[in-house]
Amino acid sequence: TAENGGARLWVESQQAVPVKSGVFSATLGSVSPLPTVVLEANQHWLAVSVRGPGDGSFAELNPRQRLDLKASSPTIPANPSAGPACAHNHFFEGWSGSNVFGLVISNTIAMPGPTFGLIVRANNPFPGPPMPGIPIAIQGETSSLNGVAGAFDNMGGGVALSVGGNGGGAEHATLRVNNTLTTTGMAAFLTNNSNFATANIYNSGAGDMLYLESNGGQFIYAVRDGAPDNPKFRVNGNGAAYADGGWQGAADFAELMITDDQTEAYGPGDVLVIGQFDRSVALSSEPYSTLVAGVYSTRPGFIGSAHVMENRREDEIPVAVIGIVPVKVSTENGPIRRGDLLVTSSTPGYAMRGINPPAGTILGKALEALDASRGTGLIQVLVTLQ
After folding, report:
1. What does the pLDDT read at residue 317?
2. Residue 329 to residues 134, 225, 279, 295, Cα–Cα distance (Å)
3. Starting from the edge strand earliest in sequence, which strands make up the sheet with 241-243, in order?
């Protein structure tokens, strides 16, 4: 008799009702005939409760649906805006449940292709409140400090949550999570019990893979085995990075420096000397040069610069000043043995074996040998300018 509460005038239970893609059809009165008090009324509400296989009790669907029945035409009037499930468009309505989780939606259909427990599409044509022009497909809220606004569990090999959209910046993101608490809580908390990555981020366009913004906290704070006071890797708000395990891979340190000539004239392994401009280098071309500056780094582990890396110039090259680096060498001063001190040679861009080299001319120590019959080659050198 009412949209909420009221007296029950009629009830029936139908079993084995087929459901396809969330849609079902049932004939009212097929089990228990509708009484006259219902058929003669102009206004009643239909309450529908459902119980799936294995469920212990029925769950009522909210809200109740209004019915206008006449004794001469005991059917639900047609509605041109009706969807496949009922004669309503459900704008600004919501579904809720009395379960401890609020509303539980599950998909137990086993099919070779993708199946979905719930598909939500948002289309907001209204420019003003209560929807300020941004469609929201799913919105979760909790008033409890220990509550969870939304939880998606994946017990198999499928996808627990799939969100697609045509986003346009932070204000029109495909997925947005906001924590309004200022002293506690997290906007997102991800857990994973599998052997695969907890998060996979892929961008097929030209945008940044990950954009981090902080108003005081650290950009990255990584711990292991739940030890929050012992971070293994972190990047603070000023951009300084700290790693307990050190930095693996290439081992040399290089500085970005401009070249006296076109950068195309230089290549990895070239021996370089101080150039004619400020903070510039050129190919070495004289033996025992005291202007020796380093080596064109093949794969620098660290790169230093007089400016931020985003402003790197096209005429700059990485000059290794310390570390283990592949170096072009010549045997013009005899074969090179492991441990030999190396200096610049008369061959442009090449080093050679030094014999009692003066201070200020030493490029580094050879870690590999080069036979005199080969003439020139590329060997590993411990660059230590002296």
Report:
1. 93
2. 65, 49, 25, 11
3. 220-222, 233-235, 241-243
Whether 294 and 385 have beta carbons less than 8 Å apart is answered as yes
Q: Both tokens of residue 382?
A: 């411990």
The whole-angstrom separation of Cα 354 and Cα 188 is: 61
Residue ranges in the chain assigned as alpha helix (H):
36-39
| Residues 6 or more apart in contact with residue 97 via CB below 8 angstroms | 59, 60, 62, 103, 104
Q: Which residue has the tokens 């102009």?
A: 42
pLDDT, tens digit (0-9, with 9 covering 90-100), for 236-283: 888 888 888 776 666 788 999 999 988 899 999 999 999 999 999 999
Q: Are 235 and 297 in contact (CB under 8 A)?
A: no
User: Looking at the whole model, is its pTM more than 0.85?
Assistant: no
User: What confidence score (pLDDT) does residue 98 get?
Assistant: 53
Pick from 226, 179, 241, 174: nearest CA to 201: 174
- Residues 296, 270: Cα–Cα separation, whole Å: 5
Question: Tokens 């680096």 belong to which residue?
Answer: 325
Can you tell me whether residue 36 is helix, strand or coil?
Answer: helix
Q: Are strands 271-274 and 280-283 parallel, antiparallel or unpaired?
A: antiparallel
